Predict the structure.
Amino acid sequence: MCQDHKNTILQTHHREKKFKLSDFFNDYWDTYAKSPKEFIRHEVYTAVRAIRACRTEVLGIEQYVCEECGEISEIYHSCKNRFCPTCSWTDTMKWAEKLQYKMFNLKHRHVVFTLPHKINGLIKRNDEKLLNILLQTTADVFKDWMSVKYNIKPGIISVLHTFGEQKNFHVHVHMIVSWGGLDGDTKLLKEIKGEYVRYKFLQQKFRVKFEDRLVKLFDNKSLKHKFKDRISFMRFLKQINSKNWHLHIEPPIDNPVGVIRYIGRYSKRACLSEYKITKMGNERISFEYKDYKNLDINGKPIVKEKDLHYTDFFPLLLQHVPFWRFRLVRYYGYYASASKIPDEFLFKPSEDDVLYSVNEKIEKASDLKTCSNCKIKKTYLFTIFKDNRIVYDAEYENMYSEIEAFWEKIVA
């Protein structure tokens, strides 16, 4: 089960970032790629190239000038890859800021479903197929339960993670579930009173739904596996059913602002924050992680350090690169894109509920398009790329298509 489940507000890091993951890739990736420990997927090559190129002259540097004093500034383009530790954080903040206006004006609960580790082999052999089933079945658990018990349709946001604190393969789904929804008869907003849920019932429902789909794949010969026959496969399922499948449910969170601040930590972020990197060099890298099996006197997990050679670090980290066009964040029930929630039932944040004032501060701090002396907007000059190609002001409208085309070339 995912242990990182304390209700906390999403905040920026106050400590200084000492290392960049791109530097480690620049130093050792080319050597590793010549004789990798494991097969390297196309998506992995793309992610690595993106991280190495992010905010460098490879993707282009925009030049701006102040027409009053002549001050010149340079703005580097970002790679926007989902696995990039810098770009994923920015995307998370923008995503969360928009999401608050699309949620029920209700309490929500954070739920974590975790697959038994003994299924990891099947997951790795079948990739997206089983991950899709996991996301669908976990959402169905709450949709079905709320429909039968309360006659309501909830809103659900699901986020898939394949990693644990030490970046081991640990498949689980973080879900935000509206603690209520629209009544099936009256179509009015209905809140669930109280926090009580039948954990064992929902655990069993999760296991049965997932295993039913698994058996169906096996019987249709659509499942990649190493079992001799159906008997050995069913014996395997019986073995993993000897213990309850993990389910964790947090107490309700008061409003969508609190919900998004919380779930934002789990959404689009890369699996390794650069703030957690403690050492780098001599072919090794170290990063911090929380050991939830060992707690301090205050009941908090002890922070430890993991040190790895690049030949061990790269396959450990890069096994979590998302598959091509695989959606890690999904929406179900009334939060699905096809559903429409009446405006009167949506949360409307007040001025006191500004979700990401910190986002505005970051944008202002990085706004190099404004002259630091004259406080006026600078004029765009041109964009220069690593191969010395220059896109001038006359081509401004086509600049981003130029960048896009160049990016396609370097990641091909």
Q: What stands out?
A: Residues 114 and 246 are 5 Å apart (CA to CA). The chain has two domains: 21-40+82-346, 52-78+364-411. The first helix runs from residue 21 to 34.
